[in-house]
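TEACHING EXERCISE
Course module: macromolecular assemblies
Task: Read the component lines below, then compare them to the predicted structure of the full complex.
Student: A.B.
Group: 4
Components provided:
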Amino acid sequence: MELKQLNAFIAIADLQSFSAAAKTTGLSQPSLSRQLKQLETEMGVILVDRYHRPLQLTEAGQFFYDKVSTVLMELNTITSMTQRLSAPSATLNIGFVPSVLYGLLPEVIATLKRNNSNHSPDIEVNLKDISSYQQIEALKTGEIDVGFGRFAHQDAWIQQVLLRHERYVVALPKSHPLADISEQRLIDLVNNRLILYHQTHLPVSTAYIPPSHMSTSHTKATGNGYLDSKQEPVTEPLLHLFAQHNITPLMTTKVSDLQVALGLVAAGEGITLVPASLQTVRTEQISYQRLVHENVTSPIYLHTLKDFIHPKIPDLLDAIYQVYEQRGITYRKQQFV
Ligand code: BEZ
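Instructor-supplied answer key:
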């Protein structure tokens, strides 16, 4: 069994057509079809049902596709990591979710550059706005060397360092009756339209499942904002924070990102919760207030590969801790494995 046969099979399966697969692989159609035939003969298994248009995988073909595509992806990761090990790039490619850019990321990078200013050559940093889940793939392909995100990931190739837990604040329109109350409770927000903006949801395994034995006053009436005990696991991050206090907001609106959510709050269309570092945004129209609940927080993680750490990443972690110390931020020092 040869790698080129496997690549031909994956291209045919992905595109469900010999001609489309020939175009993307740069092979001729007869050569592609020959690779597939050789693979099937060697295995003694028909993988692709050629009588269907578009082409379809047989049941065995589907099983083989699922397993082999994972192996080929791992092989790509290993190849890219090996290349980086032999010649690490001078540039440090950093992936980040937008909410950390409003926070300490610019200061961390300035500190890293200042600390490195005596070294030659100067450190070059390249920043990429990239979602939490996409960061994991981007680390494997080498598109980024390190990623900052707000979700934990369990992946055999990735190590994560929990940097800190940042408290959420409530963002209310300036004209809102609660806008001047400095310590807010989630239950007092329940009658407001909550604007949801996360594109990433929590894995069902870590999602909040309402207890089935809650007291009657909390389980019967959903109209009062408390959770219905028959509810599904809550995976949307903001609803999850409310759910941990057995609360369901009565009205929600989903938007594409944090900026849009704050735009709607500014326009008086609802309220939202944002990590505290966002509280400098649109302060003419938005009032940000603390929440009384200490556990309503958003974690910040640094993600990198387990087996290959870019040589500048330890300096980056030092710069982060230096910024935390200068600002009096509580954190627990972590090491790379
Ligand atoms: C922070 O806000 O803690 C942070 C943000 C970006 C990079 C590192 C830390």
